[in-house]
Prior knowledge:
With 100 residues, the protein is mainly beta. It has one domain (14-98): CATH 2.40.50. The chain contains one helix and seven strands, in the order E-E-E-E-E-H-E-E. The protein has one helix at 60-69, and strands at residues 10-11, 14-18, 26-36, 42-48, 53-55, 76-84, 91-98. A seven-stranded mixed beta sheet has the order 1-2-5-4-3-6-7, with helices on one face. A hairpin with a 5-residue loop joins strand 3 (26-36) and strand 4. The chain starts with 9 loop residues before the first strand and ends with a strand.
Amino acid sequence: MAWMTEDDFSFDDQELQFWNPETGDQLVGTVKNVKKGTYEKYFLVVEDENGDVWATTQCARLHYQIMKMKIAEGDYVCIEYNGQRSEDNAHDYKLMVDRE
């Protein structure tokens, strides 16, 4: 077995960065890929308006929204990070999609 890190991956010859937001941050762009990660939760690969490519977290809240909204490659999305919830310390994301 050979262990790999994020440094071993790129997306279409572009550097893939992990989106690690602060409360109130938004990621806006086009979904390049919907992937299932090691924890069996979906995450998104999003190209922002500057051409940077980002991978989101495998958070349960985000996973649920990806499935419910049937997010697919080509969707234009806005992901907003609302911090950690006080009642259970879970990370809170709001996913929005613009399909014209």
